[in-house]
């Protein structure tokens, strides 16, 4: 049983290491999807926003981690 918990923790940690980064990505995806579907934003512009937004969120997460030591 202990082995299963350890496997679960490692797998979960691999995908959700930084909760703030995961939350930012989910909010970004929802906002861009809503803009494409509801506001008529072109899909190419939506893809560009996703790329830039994900890179910005990753950069902020990296800066936060380096400040923490």
Description:
The protein has 69 residues and is mainly alpha-helical. It has one domain (18-68). Helices cover 87% and strands 0% of the residues. The chain is built from three helices and no strands. It has helices at 2-15, 19-38, 43-68. α2 runs antiparallel to α3. The termini are far apart. The relative contact order is 0.11. The model has no long low-confidence stretch (mean pLDDT 88).
Summarize the structure.
The protein is mainly alpha-helical. It has 3 helices and no strands.
Record keyword descriptors for this entry.
single chain; 69 residues; mainly alpha; 3 helices; flat
Low-confidence stretches: none
Mean pLDDT across the residues is 88
Give the end-to-end Cα distance, rounded to a whole number of Å.
Answer: 34 Å
Task: Estimate nothing, just give the exact number of structural domains.
Answer: 1
Beta fraction of the residues? under 5%
Number of strands: 0
Structural class: mainly alpha
From the spread of the alpha carbons, the general shape counts as flat
- List the total number of helices: 3
Rg computed from alpha carbons, rounded to a whole number of angstroms:
16 Å
Largest sheet: none
């Amino acid at each position: 049983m202990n082995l299963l918990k350890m496997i679960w923790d490692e797998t979960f940690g691999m995908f959700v290491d930084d909760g703030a980064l995961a939350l930012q990505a989910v909010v970004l995806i929802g906002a861009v999807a809503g803009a494409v579907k509801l506001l008529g934003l072109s899909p190419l512009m939506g893809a560009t926003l996703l790329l830039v937004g994900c890179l910005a969120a990753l950069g902020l997460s990296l800066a936060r981690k380096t400040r923490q030591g």
